[in-house]
């Protein structure tokens, strides 16, 4: 749309609003407005300001569709000096990179799509997140806000978690359930008692088990505690000046309680999965949880290649693993090899199986079974790390 067309559209929009509506909105604009919400059913406009909420009635007349389009065009011109409404504004603003610098301004448009755009912005602070939630309370908005790393520290964070927990029993999409649980199961959003209750209710359903692996290991209810070898091995490594050896630290991480909880949750997450989307979420999470120290090696597309590359990582002359080898028994070295394998597992391993296929359930398991067995075996080997 050209600038001339936008100006013409803007003038046409003005003629659709009554003088009384324009006056009320103009008075409202003199306040420090942070967000606007339009209720078309109740024919009202609500504004969120630093001092509270303000609400004004609207008079849509005989053509509500044209009226509300004109109203949003008017808000865009009034608050942002950009006539044309949300679609035209977002295109121009994105090109100017303003969306990344100040996404909250889109909340002044009273447009549901603009609210979604803000919720999915790369960075949000606590106040903007609360303003987004004030504008629109939905599953889509809650999940978008909960994906932000700081959500657990926001005052609105626990409200978002409660909202999602109330809606999860009615959600039919398995990937949505698993992903939502992963975002909810974070310290600060739910208590350990609440997490345990969720586990009791959902542990027999695979999406719920997967969701616990996607969440924080501190909230995994079947806690394994630290491995009996954790402290003894730590002392041996420290005594040989290896307390800063990155491979040794990686091994100790997964002999500690949080690491063992993550391993146990992974085993459960790969127990009889039924949907490709959920398996993909789990393998993406594996990439985040298990990271080999140093430059990240390319993750293979085949499980056998990952085992071979794990051997290469442990045998490298310049690596840190070889100096750890004399302090580990044969069974313990096998445990470290399994951990190295897990650091090479990723979404790439699913591509040869899932590429171009839409199968699920038992058919998917028949094709994916060897990969899942390898990953579960490796996780079990680290969990069952031998005692000296």
Quick description:
The chain has helices at 3-16, 19-29, 64-80, 85-95, 98-101, 112-119, 126-135, 139-146, 157-167, 174-184, 192-202, 206-214, 229-239, 246-253, 257-269, 276-289, 303-315, 321-324, 330-342, 351-354, 361-383, and strands spanning 33-39, 44-49, 52-57. The protein has 388 residues and is mainly alpha-helical. The protein has two domains: 3-136, no CATH class; 223-388, no CATH class.
Explain what this protein looks like in three dimensions.
The chain has 388 residues and is mainly α. It folds into 2 domains: 3-136, no CATH class; 223-388, no CATH class. It has 21 helices and 3 strands. It has helices at 3-16, 19-29, 64-80, 85-95, 98-101, 112-119, 126-135, 139-146, 157-167, 174-184, 192-202, 206-214, 229-239, 246-253, 257-269, 276-289, 303-315, 321-324, 330-342, 351-354, 361-383, and strands at residues 33-39, 44-49, 52-57. The protein has a 3-stranded antiparallel beta sheet with strand order 1-2-3, sandwiched between helices. The radius of gyration is 27 Å and the shape is elongated. The protein starts with a helix and ends in a 5-residue tail after the last helix.
